[in-house]
């Protein structure tokens, strides 16, 4: 179904949606953008480049309370609030499609699934790629899996729906009919590129390349690359108790394969003792192991890890180096 | 039986002990889970021991060694609290300067030699360290709860950046400010970066801190070599990593 909506009506539609949903949307944070639960729809910025943290901060929040316990009594926190993600980019939507593969098919993560089913995704096509993005190389610039898709066409957003949920959402006075099915030209806008041809084969050959040592010498082990990645989903679990020591909650928090003790086991052995092995693990998981399992790279080319790495470790540069480009 | 706890202070500002007293929400509940055997800052009747856990603040001057050894002998677990106890603190800096007193007193005749001040572990076995200037009081309580539960307390092995990123702060390094977050051990909930102030490393180096890469990064941001070493050494110059740091 195709419609259009006047830009000035975005605030009004969000106000209306806020009656039934939590609305999560990009807002300005100093010089950058973040996803936030909206209180004032005027603050929403739809022509943003990228956010610091991806939408997983709501779908796989850190911390997430898994259970509450009080002596022997255990309760699982209920949250049935419906959420609309308003204005997420195709790369982030595609990242959610990838997370689905892990959280539905492989692990059946009820915490994720519940939030996912209670969510509606209104995507907005990206117009402001920054110097780090390379989604076009990863094929994730093509929006998929959305409920509603908005494309900037000047004074209006062109509106496409991708699901029943989406169709219901556009059934109101704010969305105008379009005469003919105008075909929208999606502008290419990434400046950065990554050549992913024969990716898997090349990575397999380069497992012992000296580049991993060089990157290990440089990496600060800060974990930022994985915390900001829309498809990194690793976590660790900890119990928080009050002073009675009988009452508290079990939380899960984001973890990262870049951190020193990620692969440390009881007894103290560390399966990835060297920093070079940790840097390599993240890249191999994204670009090879995930691909072998699901036939997709786990990288959507959002560029966040490149931007956030304090020492400039850049997946596009690493891949082009091991290719010998 | 409630475990017996002692809280002691040596050479320092006493700010870490004060942080414990600042636990206003739970302070009055603490005596229901531990016996406070010795805490001179908070009570007037104090015994030497026996102690299940002693928390020791401050760096150690020569004349204090005997006292520290006595505490060690009386305690099952000894915990260094604060960066003075863990690394020798700011005052350890004098070890890098020849005749440091001259800077302050000029040629005035000194009655005392410059105090030789060191971390607890220079003299006794330290079981756990809770660094920070001052300590983080929540981390102190978490530590205590682990001991009370009979669990091995888990020490943090990740840097400040982890806490900072989870709060979605705009990275100061990206904004051109030099931040020691990547080489500093977490535990303060990234207090400084949360307030747009760079991490100055008061908690000391994180496990496997990559000092040389951090130094390269700081040089790229335009710091001069003398300042670079000074930055690293401000709070925890007694840490091996920062003693060996090269510009
Ligand atoms: S690996 Fe980097 S560029 Fe790829 S999706 Fe993750 S954060 Fe984005
Ligand atoms: S962001 Fe960069 S320095 Fe930090 S862990 Fe990732 S690769 Fe290493
Ligand atoms: S502001 Fe400092 S602590 Fe925060 S992510 Fe950047 S370097 Fe790390």
Question: What's the gist of this structure?
Answer:
The complex is a heterodimer of chains A (325) and B (247). Chain A contains twelve helices and twelve strands. By secondary structure, chain A is an alpha+beta fold.
**Strand fraction band of chain A?**
15-25%
**What does the radius of gyration of chain A come to?**
21 Å
End-to-end gap of chain B: 53 Å
Shape of chain B: globular
The domain tally of chain A reads 2
Summarize the topology.
The complex is a heterodimer of chains A (325) and B (247).
Chain A: E1 2-6, H1 10-17, E2 22-29, E3 32-37, H2 56-59, E4 64-70, E5 73-75, E6 83-88, H3 90-106, H4 110-117, E7 119-124, H5 135-138, E8 148-152, E9 156-161, H6 164-169, E10 175-177, H7 199-205, H8 211-218, H9 224-227, E11 235-241, E12 247-254, H10 275-294, H11 304-308, H12 315-323
Helix pairs in contact in A: 7-10, 8-10
Chain B: E1 4-9, H1 15-21, H2 30-33, E2 35-39, E3 51-57, E4 60-61, H3 65-74, E5 75-81, H4 82-87, H5 101-105, E6 117-118, E7 128-130, H6 137-148, H7 160-166, H8 191-194, H9 211-220, H10 225-236, H11 240-243
Parallel strand pairs in B: 1-2, 1-3, 3-5, 5-7
Antiparallel strand pairs in B: 4-6
One iron/sulfur cluster binds next to helix 7 of chain B.
């Amino acid at each position: 179904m195709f419609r259009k909506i006047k830009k000035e009506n975005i605030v009004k539609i969000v106000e209306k949606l806020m009656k039934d949903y939590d609305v999560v949307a990009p807002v300005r944070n100093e010089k950058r953008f973040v996803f936030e639960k909206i209180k004032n729809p005027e603050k929403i910025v739809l022509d943003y480049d990228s956010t610091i943290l991806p939408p997983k901060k709501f779908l796989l929040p850190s911390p997430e309370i898994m259970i509450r316990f009080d002596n022997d009594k255990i309760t699982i926190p209920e949250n049935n609030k419906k959420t609309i993600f308003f204005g997420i980019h195709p790369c982030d939507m595609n990242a959610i499609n990838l997370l689905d593969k892990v959280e539905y098919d492989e692990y059946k993560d009820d915490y994720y699934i519940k939030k996912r089913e209670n969510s509606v995704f209104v995507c907005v096509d990206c117009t402001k790629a920054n110097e780090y993005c390379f989604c076009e190389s990863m094929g994730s610039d093509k929006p998929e899996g959305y409920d509603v898709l908005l494309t900037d066409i000047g004074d209006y957003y062109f509106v496409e729906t991708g699901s029943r949920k989406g169709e219901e959402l556009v059934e109101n006075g704010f969305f105008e009919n379009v005469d003919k099915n105008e075909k929208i030209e999606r502008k290419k806008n990434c400046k950065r590129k990554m050549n992913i041809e024969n990716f898997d084969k090349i990575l397999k050959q380069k497992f012992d390349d000296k580049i991993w040592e060089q990157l290990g010498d440089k990496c600060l082990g800060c974990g930022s690359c994985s915390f900001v990645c829309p498809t990194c989903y690793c976590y660790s679990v900890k119990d928080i108790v009050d002073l009675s020591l009988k009452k508290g909650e079990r939380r899960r928090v984001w973890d990262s394969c870049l951190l020193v003790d990620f692969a440390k086991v009881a007894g103290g052995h560390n399966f990835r003792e060297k920093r070079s092995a940790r840097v390599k693990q993240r890249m191999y998981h994204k670009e090879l192991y995930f691909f072998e399992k699901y036939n997709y790279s786990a990288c959507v080319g959002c560029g966040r890890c490149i931007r956030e790495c304090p020492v400039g470790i850049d997946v596009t540069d690493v891949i082009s180096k091991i290719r010998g480009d | 039986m409630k475990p017996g706890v002692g809280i002691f202070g040596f050479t320092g500002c006493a700010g870490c002990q004060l942080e414990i007293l600042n636990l206003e929400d739970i302070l009055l509940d603490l005596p229901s889970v531990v016996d406070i055997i010795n805490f001179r800052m908070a009570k007037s009747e104090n015994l030497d021991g026996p102690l299940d856990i002693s928390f020791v603040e401050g760096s150690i001057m020569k004349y204090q060694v005997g006292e520290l050894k006595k505490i060690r002998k009386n305690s099952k677990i000894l915990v260094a609290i604060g960066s003075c106890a863990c690394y020798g603190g700011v005052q350890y800096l004098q070890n890098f300067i020849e005749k440091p007193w001259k800077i302050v007193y000029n040629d005035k005749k000194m009655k005392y030699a410059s105090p030789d001040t060191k971390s607890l572990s220079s003299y006794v076995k330290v079981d756990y360290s809770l660094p920070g200037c001052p300590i983080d009081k929540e981390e102190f309580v978490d530590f205590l709860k682990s001991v009370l539960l009979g669990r091995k307390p888990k020490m943090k092995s990740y840097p400040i950046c982890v806490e900072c990123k989870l709060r979605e702060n705009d990275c100061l390094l990206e904004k051109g400010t030099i931040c020691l977050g990547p080489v500093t051990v977490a535990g303060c909930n990234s207090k400084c970066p949360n307030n747009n102030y760079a991490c100055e490393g008061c908690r000391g180096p994180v496990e496997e801190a990559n000092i040389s890469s951090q130094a390269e990064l700081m040089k790229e941001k335009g710091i001069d070599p003398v300042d670079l070493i000074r930055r690293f050494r401000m709070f925890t110059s007694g840490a091996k990593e920062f003693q060996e740091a090269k510009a």
